TrEMBL record:
Keywords: Coiled coil, DNA recombination. Belongs to the RmuC family. Transmembrane segments: none annotated. It comes from the Bacteria. This is DNA recombination protein RmuC homolog. Involved in DNA recombination. One of its GO terms (biological process) is DNA recombination. It comes from Roseomonas indoligenes. The keyword Coiled coil applies. Coiled coil: none annotated.
Length: 410
């Protein structure tokens, strides 16, 4: 058993030795191979490094060439951009200079215009100030004149105060009052109407006499005016001491006016001869206002009967309307004659136009003749100059036929 183990151990050791030998051989082979592989790899790496170095050099050369091209392009672009910017800047400077010059010219023109306007304004202001000074002096003179007029008016008022008493006496007397109203009416009528537009103290067909008849054409026809007015009751109402007396006088005044209106309507409104209305002239604005304020029914009744109550101011306006109506009637009456004269004027204008046309034609003929004469005189003048330019020799030249020939020209 021991021997077997020894043999086995020897066999095992021999196997291990053989194995170690094989391993040594294999290790040597592997070392050789590794060395060869290392040398091959080193050679490959060296070759690859050389290739990389060569490629890097070529790449660097290409990069350098591209960098040079880029630098050249950049320089060219910079130069072109610089030139473009310089040209644009020069053009901009030129435009700015032109605009500055135009602005300076405009500013100078504006300053000149402003100076002229200021001078003109100063001149106008001076003229206005002078005119205002003159007007102020004139106004002061007028004020002094008006003060003198006021002083005179004060004196006139004092004299008028003395005349008021006599006027009250006139108004207190019926006949004097009627004459006063008629005088006032006469002044207004003669001032507003033409002389042939009215008739004083005219007698109508019914043998009644009105103070004035205003000759209006039909329609509406002549209008009669009465200037007599019942004033006693109104004065009594104004001077009444108590309310009872005032009321009684007021009623009597309304009754007197109504009765007077009825008389005017019956006497001065004549169908076919006068208009369908008449005028009652009240010579006092105060009485007229009191009538319309306190006795409106009386005024309305008078209007319905065709009697219209007027005061000096309203009579003035009514007569103005009547005068316009008279003027319109006269214009219409003369319209036919005016139309005939206009027709004759149109004929005269037509004849004048024909004669002007003939005269214009005559002038054209004369102008044509003058032009023809100028043409002829021009030709004669030119031929005279040509004749003067010809120099004749002393000996005439004979032709072969024995006739005279003109001397030869030089």
């Amino acid at each position: 058993m021991g021997d077997r183990l020894a043999e086995a151990r020897l066999a095992t050791e021999a196997a291990l030795a053989a194995q170690r030998e094989r391993l040594g051989t294999t290790e040597q082979v592997l070392a050789d191979r590794l060395s060869e592989a290392t040398r091959a790899m080193a050679d490959a790496l060296a070759a690859q490094g050389l290739a990389v170095a060569n490629s890097s050099a070529a790449q660097n050369e290409r990069l350098a060439a591209q960098e040079k091209v880029l630098a050249e392009r950049l320089a060219a672009s910079s130069l072109a951009l610089t030139e473009t910017l310089a040209n644009a800047l020069a053009a901009q400077n030129e435009r700015l200079a032109a605009q500055e010059k135009a602005l300076a010219d405009r500013l100078a023109a504006s300053q000149e215009a402003l100076g002229a306007a200021v001078a003109a304004q100063n001149e106008r202001l001076g003229r206005v100030l002078n005119e205002n000074a003159v007007k102020a002096e004139e106004t002061a003179g007028k004020i002094h004149e008006r003060l003198a007029v006021i002083d005179a008016a004060r004196a006139n008022m004092e004299a008028l105060g003395a005349q008021v008493g006599s006027l009250a006496q006139i108004l207190g007397n019926k006949q004097s009052r009627g004459a006063f109203g008629e005088v006032q009416l006469r002044q207004i009528v003669e001032d507003r109407l033409p002389p042939d537009g009215f008739s004083w103290q005219h007698t109508l067909a019914n043998r009644t006499r009105c103070d004035v008849l205003i000759r209006l054409p039909h329609p509406p026809g002549p209008i009669a005016v009465d200037s007599k007015f019942p004033l006693e009751a109104w004065l009594a109402a104004r001077d009444a001491g108590d309310d009872g007396a005032r009321i009684a006088a007021t009623k009597r005044f309304a009754a007197d006016v109504t009765r007077h209106v009825d008389d005017i309507a019956g006497k001065y409104i004549c169908p076919g001869e006068t208009a369908e209305g008449a005028l009652l002239f009240v010579p006092s604005e105060a009485i007229y206002a009191d009538l319309h304020a306190a006795h409106a029914p009386v005024v309305d009744r008078a209007a319905r009967m065709g009697v219209y109550i007027v005061s000096p101011s309203t009579m003035w306006a009514v007569l103005g309307t009547m005068r316009a109506l008279m003027q319109d009637v006269r214009i219409r009456a003369e319209a036919g004659q005016i139309k005939a004269q206009v027709a004759e004027l149109v004929k005269d204008v037509g004849r004048l136009d024909d004669r002007v046309t003939k005269l214009r034609k005559h002038f054209v003929d004369i102008q044509t003749d003058v032009q023809q004469i100028e043409i002829t005189t021009g030709k004669i003048a030119r031929r005279g100059v040509a004749i003067e330019a010809v120099e004749l020799s002393d000996t005439p030249v004979l032709s072969s036929s024995g006739g005279l020939l003109a001397p030869a020209a030089d």
